[in-house]
Structures are given as C-alpha cells and as structure tokens.
Pilus motility taxis protein HmpF
Amino acid sequence: MLYLAEVQIQKGFMGNKAMVKLLACQRSEQNWSSVSEELIELAEPGTLKDGALVLVEVANKKIQRPPQDAARPLIGILQKFSTLQGKFEGQEEEIEQWKQSLTFQAQELNRREMELVAREDELAQLEDEAEKLEEKRQEIESLSEEAERQREEFERKSQELEGAWAHLRGEQQRLEEQQGELSSASILDEEKADQIRQSLQSLSEAVSPTESLREAVGQMTTAVSEQQQVLDQHWQQLEQSKGQTSQQQGEVEQLKQTIEGRWQEWNEAQTVLEKAQVDLKTQQSILQIKQELLSPMQTHLSQTEQLCQQLQQLSEASGKPAVTVDRQTLENMPIDELQKRVEDLEQDLKRASGFVKDQEEELGYQMEAIDELKQKIEQASEYDRLSLETELSSEQESYDFLNESLVGSRRNLAEREFVYKTHVSILRRRQGYPVEAGGEALLDFSPALEAAESQREQQSEQMQRMEAEISQIQSAIGQAEELVNSQMADQETKRNEIKQLEETLAQQEQQWAQARSQVEIYEQMLQPLQDQLAQYREKVEQLQEGITGIQSTNDRQLQAISQLQQTVTELTQ
C-alpha cells in the first residue's frame, strides 16, 4: 500500500540511521487519509535529506521498493484538488442558483394561488350578482308573460268587442231602417225598445276593463326602472374599474421605463467595473512579473553576499584584513609620536581581544545549553517536548544573534591586530630593529572585496527599488481590489433591486391583466342584460300605447252607446 512519509535522519554513536514516518495512506486514486504516526527503518537512504517528503510502498511494516520523491506527485494532487475545488465551487453556485430559482418559483406559485383564490372570490361575487340579475330577469319575464296574457285577453275581448260593434252596427242599421219606416211616427214600441236596450247593455258590458292591465304594466315599468337602477350602479362600478385599470396600465408603463433606466445605468456601471477588473488583472500580472524578477535578484544578491563573506574569510585567513594603513604618514611621523600610537593601539587591542574572548566563552555556554536541551527533548514526553522545543528555539535565536555579532567582533579584532602589527613593524624598522619575515608579503583582498561590496550594494539598491515598486503595486492592487469589491457589491445590490422591481412589474402586469379581464367579463355580462332590459322596456311601452288605444276605443264606444240609449229613450217617448 502506498504511503506519504517524512524522512528522519537520526544521529547516534554508531552512525546515522534513516527512518520514515508514515503520514497518510492512499485509499483510492483521489482519496488519502491520515494514519497514526509510525516509524519504519529505511535500509538505503541514498541522497534523501532529513525532513524530505517521499512516497513509499509498505507491506508487513517493511518498505518494498526505494522511496520516491513526493514533490511532483503532491503538486499533481494539489492541482487536481484545486481543479475539483473549482468544480465543486461551480456546482455549489449552480445549486445555489437552483435553490434561488426554486424559491422564486415557490413564491410565484403561492402568489398565483392567492390570486386564483381572490379571482375565485370575485367570480363567486359576480355569480351572486348574476343570480340576482337572473332573479330580476325571471321576475321581468313573469311580468312580461302576465302582460302578454293580458294582451291576449285584451285582443280576445277586442275581437268580442268588434263582434259586438258589428252587431251594434247591424242593430243600428236596422234601427235606422225602422226609423225610416216609422219616419212618420216619433216613438218605438216597447218591445223593440227593450231589445235595443238589451243590445246596448250587452255592448256596454262588453267594454274591456283596462285598470288591471294598467296596474300590471305599471308593475312592469317599476321593475324595469329598478332593474335599470341596479344596472346603472353596475355600469358605474364598471367605469370605475376601467379607470382603475387605466391607472394600473399607466403605473405598469412607468415602472417599465424605470426598470429600463435602471438596467441602462447598471450596464454602464458594469462596463466601468469590467474595465476596473481588467486594470486590476493587469496590475496583478505586472506584480507577478516583478515578483518573478525579484527572485533571481535575491539569488544574485545572496551569491554576492556569499562572495563577500568568502573574500572576507580569505582576507582574514591571509592575515591581512580589508583595512588600509597610510604607511607614508607613519614613515614621516616622529618616532615618539609613533611609539605613543603603538602603545595606544596595543591597549585598544587588548581590550578588544578580551571582549571577543568573553563573547566566545558566552557562545560556548550557549552551545552547551543547546546541546543539553536537545538531549532533554530526546528523552522528554510529548507534553514536555513542546515547552522544551520553544525554549530550544529561543536559545538557538540567542546563539545565532551572538554568533553574528561575534563575526563582526572577530573581524574588528583582526583589523585592529593588523593595524597594530603594521605600526609595530614600521616602528621597529625605523628604530633599527630587525623586522619579522612575511609581515609585508600578505595578500591584499581588499580591491576584490571592495568590488564585491560595491556590486552587493548596487544589487541591494536594485532589489530595494524593486521591493518598493512591488510594495506600491501591492498597495495599489489592494485599493483596486477594495474598489472592485465595493463596486461588485453595489452592482449586486442594484441588480437585486432591479430583479425585485421586475418581480413587482410582473405582479402589477398580472394584476392589470386580471383586472382588464374582469372588466371585459363584467362588460360582457352587463351588456346582454342591458339589451334585454331595453327590449322589455320597449315591450312595456308598446303595452302602454296599446292600453291607451284601448282606453280611447272604450271611451268612444261608451259615448256611442250613451247616444244610442238617449235616442232609444227619445223614440220610446
């Protein structure tokens, strides 16, 4: 089974021993799981270093084949993980979009359900009103049927009246004939007069009464008027609904214009945001290029510093530090003054030598303390190891700081010693004493060291300028990122506001369409009722005209009967 492990080089009296500490186990191609730390001895460490990460195959707690460097496989795993993470983020965004879509659909369904319920209530109200209108219509139809029945009765009686009139005209003609025959006489016999009176009485009784018909027509007129008042109220409500519908249409159009303006502003701001994002990516690319350039500059500077250190070490090893002495001035200086300077340099050299010696002793103590802490850490428990490692880190930092300061002190001491020996050599030669051989033939590394130091300073300045530029670019990128994030947040807020306005627009459009359909249905229901009521009113008016005609005929009939009765009375006298 394949494991990810860490190489540990353990030092001992018998030599170094290489171990691997198992960290994680591969369960499948894309699945790794951590394991309990376990150390397995590595037979052939090869060129592996302490702390290196390797891939090993382990079976029965033994390594089956040589370890492989885990750097490249780990990079591949991290790249795959980054790709999968990107896919997961995309899927999460898609899932979130689906959630928002489903939420919006659920809200839309709930809103439509509420609208359907409200529409059902309105339809139920309209049905109730339609039922009331139907009841009025049935009442009008019943009155119309009654009027029709009375009209038929009136026509029947009119026909009877026409028969009576025909009989009356016959009797009148016969009476006239009799009057002609009895023109010489001025009276009728009693028998014929009774017959004529009976005929006139029958005609008088045959006159159709119109009071009941007038009463029925009056009821019909009242019912039609009441129905017209109800319809007028509904027509008024219809006009109000039309006005409200027109107002809703105006609000919908105004909201559409507002949304179009908002979208236009949003698109303009989005264009500015995209340009800012492009500028940000450009600055990030420039930053990446400069950071890539900074890395070789740091490498060159590090190499130059190493060269300076090596030259310094060579200079120190040669016995001639990188310091210059004005030998001509010493040659021209009085011997007493030169001797006094030599004595001062000797005292200064003793003090510096004592100081360096004290530092070296302190450095030795620090090294002993570090060794003791390392031994304690190897023997300590897991709980105590953490505090000991912290103490070791602190001691190591103190040791490194003291060692670095000691390097400068040693260099300073070597320079002082070189200056002192040079002064002594010139003084002894001027006093006539023999000079030690080799004191004047030391190699001079100062020109190379000065050139290396100059190059190091130039590289350091270039790197500092590059770091300053990188810092400025990073600061500009930070500000640009804040601005872009702020603009993105504003754009998202504005976009959500526009979406809410669009949802409001959809609701208002649906309400306007619903109100318009209700107005159309209302008008479609009212217009047939109004037409039918107009027909009823026309029939009632026709009945009224018929009743008026009948009443006029009755009046003329009664007047004629009265005249005939008077004539008969005169003839009988």
Notes: Strands lie at 2-10, 17-26, 32-41, 53-59, 62-63, 68-69. The CA atoms of residues 171 and 421 lie 187 Å apart. The chain has seven helices and six strands. The helical segments are 71-181, 190-205, 211-318, 327-332, 335-379, 382-431, 446-572.
